[in-house]
Specification:
The protein is α+β, with helices and mostly antiparallel strands.
């Protein structure tokens, strides 16, 4: 069933349909003749390479391949189709001239068809915009408008998991950040993967990246979480294969990677663990296995890498010389899996290599070489949807398309890779696991919670500065004149009382009152009336509150009415600033997705 029989959407062109070629088993672009052509048509002979069909009339060839965007060959040319004139960009149809031949519009003085350029129809321009809007696995957006049959084909590729309240049922909230957890598992499914991962593993959270996209879509932070990080895994409500629900009890002081695939834990458990560590609510997850690396790297035509030294690893079977290479398939998987070829042979050094590989893949996926090739786009979209397991909130091509258009707005140069700061586990003699370096991790997490870019994004800096000027700059009331009610909506028991004690004893805010517990909230807020702005500024300065925490009402306070301070999950204790730093901690290494680096 194609778009015509479905009541097509505006972006669908009924003349351009992806159909299954029974001879090749591949999807190919069918370009219908317009103008009621009664002559016969034929299918595109080459798999997935669109070209003009030809029709015969009085022994003459009427159709010819396009050359460039709008030029056509006339019958006077002999009707021979040059290889250079075949187009890979679909969606342009010839018009029939007045004398019945399909060629350039109008006539020349010799009676042959004349030449005239015309602008691409509106529908074509929409398709081009869609092609350039996708990124990473979401390149399927480029082909989602190709027809209902293709849409259903990609939809059927996807695997979904219902993670309940761990995720966000909406694809995204306009004007809000998006947090996507990308999980690479060590499950040995797929041909040739017996040598990787753990034998019999259900698929642990082996490679983990929290992809945070800013609210204004100007930048993104890709936070890698080490699999060997010792942490607490919270209780997790899961749906079992038989449809029943089961609460998997939490575990303390255990490797992060067992938040998935052990004791019946699903990706929702990993999402909850990430939230507990970072304070960031994860909206969606995307899970891939070993096959995904092989298939995606092959579909994109190979991924460029650079080696600072030759590598010959007998365990991963990676054997490459020093310098630049384009790798795919088994070599690509070996490159991202090897942990004995770079740095000090630790998982942390492997993370750096994986970040370099992903950055290069993003550049390749967003390159003109990929975006203008329907053949590559189809293969990439097909491989991506087959490789992905996602939450039900984005479990369809339509929803992934909407998400892809949001992610595609981020310029590659504004995507920053960073790894959770860690220290060797002091409890171990043989160093095999790591623990959080809280002095560095807490400011980094705070920046992400406050949606502060790790790259220099001028528009965002200007916007943030204006907000700071408007809310935090101005006269401040004396501490004795500040009146505030404190509620605890965070995770620390007794936080409201300890904060009031600190305000009264250390800061002289004697008119502060403990109002006990409130509903849980992620971020600390201070609500105040317009005529309490000077008090709000004074309290924000004392507590290190960011401008985003200040919520000014519309009517003035009356009498002894107090401001309302509600402590959120981001509150770490009295006297500890809630505001995120303007820059990442000095000793935390950052990598940019637009910059190619050599693995060392």
């Amino acid at each position: 069933m194609d778009a015509q029989s479905r009541g097509r959407a505006d972006e669908f062109d009924p003349a351009d349909q992806w159909v299954l070629n029974p001879d090749t088993g591949d999807y190919e672009l069918r370009l219908n003749n317009s103008g009621g052509d009664s002559a016969g048509t034929r299918q595109v002979p080459e798999p997935r390479v669109p070209r003009r069909r030809e029709a015969t009339h009085d022994g003459e060839r009427e159709g010819a391949a396009r050359k460039g965007g709008d030029e056509r060959r006339s019958a006077a040319d002999g009707g021979h189709v040059r290889e250079s004139e075949r187009r890979e960009v679909p969606g342009q149809r010839g018009r029939r001239s007045a004398n019945g031949s399909r060629g350039k519009e109008g006539s020349g003085p010799d009676g042959t068809a004349g030449r005239r350029s015309r602008k691409a129809p509106k529908a074509r321009r929409k398709k081009v915009l869609l092609w350039t809007g996708g990124t990473m696995a979401f390149v399927l957006v480029a082909l989602a408008a190709g027809g209902y049959a293709l849409y259903q084909h990609f939809n059927g590729n996807l695997n979904t998991v219902d993670v309940g309240t761990a995720g966000n049922k909406n694809v995204f909230d306009s004007g809000a950040p998006i947090n996507i957890l990308i999980i690479g598992t060590d499950k040995r499914t797929g041909k040739g993967n017996e040598g990787y991962g753990d034998k019999g593993s259900e698929g642990h959270a082996d490679t983990n990246i929290l992809f945070h996209v800013s609210a204004d879509r100007t930048n993104a932070t890709a936070l890698s979480i080490p699999r060997d990080l010792i942490t607490d895994i919270p209780d997790c409500n899961t749906k079992q294969p038989d449809g029943s629900e089961k609460v998997v009890p939490g575990t303390q002081n255990i490797r992060f990677n067992v938040s998935l695939g052990q004791d019946g834990r699903d990706p929702g458990c990993t999402m909850r663990t990430v939230e507990q560590i970072t304070g960031l609510k994860t909206d969606h997850f995307m899970m891939v296995d070993f096959n995904a690396v092989k298939e995606l790297s092959t579909a994109v035509g190979g991924v460029k890498i650079c080696l600072a030294k030759p590598v010959k690893d007998p365990k991963s079977h990676l054997d490459l010389s020093e310098g630049e290479h384009r790798i795919q398939g088994e070599d690509a998987l070996a490159f991202v899996r090897t942990r004995h070829s770079f740095g000090n042979e630790s998982d942390l050094d492997r993370i750096k290599v994986q970040q370099q590989f992903i950055g290069s893949m993003i550049r390749q996926m967003k390159s003109d070489d990929t975006l203008t090739s329907p053949t590559k786009l189809y293969g990439l979209a097909d491989a991506a949807t087959k490789a992905l397991t996602v939450d039900s909130g984005i479990g369809s091509v339509k929803k992934l398309t909407a998400l892809a258009q949001e992610l595609g707005k981020v310029d590659t140069k504004n995507i920053t890779f960073v790894t959770v700061p860690v220290l060797d586990n002091p409890a171990e003699k043989v160093k095999a696991t790591v623990v959080l370096n809280e002095a560095q991790a807490d400011p980094l997490f705070a920046m992400m919670r406050e949606d502060t870019s790790l790259t220099e994004v001028n528009a965002q800096k200007k916007k943030a500065k204006g907000k700071q000027d408007a809310l935090l700059k101005g006269p401040k009331a004396a501490a004795a004149d500040v009146r505030v009610d404190v509620y605890n909506g965070g995770e620390i028991p007794g936080a409201a009382q300890s904060t009031v004690a600190w305000l009264q004893n250390d800061k002289g805010v004697l008119k502060s009152t403990n109002k006990a517990n409130a509903a849980k909230i992620d971020k600390t807020t201070l609500e105040f009336a317009p005529n309490q702005a000077d008090q709000a500024r004074a309290l924000a300065d004392m507590m290190g509150l960011p401008a985003s925490a200040l919520k000014q009402g519309t009517t003035d306070a009356e009498g002894l009415q107090a401001m309302v301070l509600t402590l959120g999950r981001d509150f770490k204790g009295a006297g500890i600033p809630v505001a995120a730093p303007a820059k990442a901690p000095k000793d935390v290494p950052l990598a940019n997705a637009a910059k190619a680096e050599c693995a060392k």
